[in-house]
């Protein structure tokens, strides 16, 4: 395949265009299917104007051809799901995912043991020891619909930093943000959604914006649009923006022997903060009829007792260094600091010390 090198102007145009279409997408009051088609129409119409050099035409045309195919598939899935035609959705999704796997679009990998993740639960009262694990199976009727989980089916969501967990909980006061560390005891097999979606890297270097990269950006935009819409309030108990991610996750777990998926949080824009701070895990929790909590999960993690974020003995000078509430990066415009200098990083270090010193929960705490 012929390689065309970006000019400086083309690279600048690409960055501006990519930032314009960075996640999450807000649909407002427009119906889910209408919004999906509207944003796809807009993207398709504008992409050709970004790369005007004739050398790019073959790559743009190839991307648009794949874009149209992807859009058609997702439109059918959304349409059938809205009509409660679950069988048609399942058959088409299964076939699509099998094709993705065959073409190598999914990046399956193992997260090594000893990697750390976190979970925050917002509460104005003391959270009990088991309070940051998934919803007990005896109370699964209260399990809300999330981006990658169905109502009444508990799953475990973790973040790779306390910061992104705090964002996911809508920035609660630190006194009511109870956090636990989840340290992996064994490798975790996950599917990396972001490897499928080059659109999620708007600050990519010029050298990496290759013809293949651009083709994939175009081809997978409908997938991005359907997967990462910003949630609006539920209607009749369902969140429309979660229709496609819910069905996709269910099919993926049915077809692949993986523990879950890793994906970029929609709570914070990649343009504004490092993507390394904003990774989430969605993990399956196989139900057990005689237990409230999944042994499958407990066998994989060492978990610390939940404590409020403000419970750590942080020196006064540390607050001055961090700024208001220890907020990292651009959260507080008065201060711009490195993440390692934030309250969040300090709390993570303290929890790691707790883990190393044996201040962790035992299986007996859950049974």
Describe the structure.
The protein is α+β, with helices and mostly antiparallel strands and 367 residues long. It is built from eleven helices and nine strands. The strands form two sheets. A five-stranded mixed beta sheet has the order 1-5-6-7-3. Strands 2, 4, 8 and 9 form a four-stranded antiparallel beta sheet that branches. Helix 2 runs antiparallel to helix 3, helix 3 (57-82) packs parallel to helix 7 (221-227) and helix 4 crosses helix 8. The radius of gyration is 22 Å and the shape is globular. The termini are far apart.
Note the main attributes of this structure.
367 residues; alpha+beta; 5-stranded mixed beta sheet; 4-stranded antiparallel beta sheet; 11 helices; 37% helix
How many helices? The count is: 11
Task: Specify the structural class.
Answer: alpha+beta
Distance between the termini: 59 Å
Residues in helix, %: 25-40%
Provide the succession of SSEs. HHHHEEEHEEHHHEEHEEHH
Largest sheet: 5 strands, mixed
Instruction: Tell me what portion of residues adopts beta-strand conformation.
Output: 5-15%
Give the averaged pLDDT, no decimals: 79
Summarize the structure.
The protein has 367 residues and is an alpha+beta fold. Helices cover 37% and strands 13% of the residues. It contains 11 helices and 9 strands.
